[in-house]
Amino acid sequence: MCDSTSDIISHLPSNVLDKILMCLPMEETARTSVLSRKWRYIWAKLPQLVFDDRFCRGSLRKTKNELVMTIYEVLLLHRGPILKFALSLSQLENCSEIDRLIVFVSNNGIQDLTLHVWTGGLYILPSSLYSCLQLKRLNLRSCRFNFKPVPGFKGFSVLRCLELCRVCVTNDVLSSLISNCPLLEQLMLEEFINLNCLEIVAPNLRLLRCKGLFDSVCFKNTPRLAEVSINTVASTAGLAFSKTEMSTLGSAPVIEFLELGYYYVKSMAAGGVPKRLPITLSHLRYLKLYYICFGEVDEASFVLCLIRSSPNLEKITIESFFCETAAMDRVLELLEVQDWSDVSLNKLRKVEILKVSGTKPEMEFIKLLLAKSSVLERMLIEMNTKMVTDKGLGILKELITFRRASPQADVTFRNPNEDKV
């Protein structure tokens, strides 16, 4: 019975065997070489090699040099192209021996490269990385780019996905790298070192995620950008925000999902807020904003400008932020003076306003959404239990009586400290 089962597995198509083996940890894959003569070199022809913590479970006492040498021995035994190579070992420190691994895979048709260095400081990327011209995906953690241009390097012409975390690089080097990846579709940047202002020129970019220390992120040529998430912290102390023109969103005309954090909102608002954007964000379906103080004129104006410019919104999520020094009367004047006849939210179905403190500007904003959303199905208001007063709770309850453009709109209040909604 065992022989029969073994025969069935052994006679599976080679591509099926490859997929089965690639699901196993590297150590287990290598052990299949003892099954039979036919199996002896199957593992050595796999197009992907993944060295993660599963690989060194039985080698916890090995030094960093011994780990790298073990990996290098595996590479020497490998036959055929290496399309995917991943090195992410929590016990592997930064060491020059990693250079040899990069050189090896650069000469074997590498298309997907992951390099995560967890301890021992930043790993300085070798020049051999720039010879990996067939790369389609590059994922780096705790690395440092060479700040000087590499002679003859004209970019990764087929790179589609770039993920960088805790990477040290200058503004010019990263901007140049991105602009020289003409097919780039996904860009994820997190916890950067030595980077403050970033200009993005990427005509095929579809997804952008930025998190960490950035003063500003500007879109220069991103006509296909559909999903944007920017949650940044100013790299300079205090509230000296760099001015980022709101018109930069005009370089993302087909954006569908937009998520912005507090510092980026302040950065854009500091550059001046128009009544509406120069172009209509007709493709935007989901708007998500964090730490918005409706008592601040610039932030409230920013939110209203985005809503005015996005007539096809289907969902809005806003996490409110209570600011004790805010000049709320100015915002109330803004809400009263402006003409809202040009605001159309005929596709908005779901609204979430979180950490509501019961301030008058918050209530006026909620009232506006109820009055302008003709197909609204559900509005969730989550209270900020630390800030809500009896008066604020009374205003929240009064919202139930506000006029609603949608007869089926359900307004739900939620106290995060209570089980019941």
TrEMBL record:
Gene3D superfamilies: 1.20.1280.50, Ribonuclease Inhibitor
Domain F-box span(s) in chain numbering: 6-54
Pfam families xref list: F-box, LRR_At5g56370
Descriptive protein name: F-box/FBD/LRR-repeat protein
Organism for this UniProt entry: Actinidia chinensis var. chinensis (Chinese soft-hair kiwi)
Classification lineage: Eukaryota, Viridiplantae, Streptophyta, Embryophyta, Tracheophyta
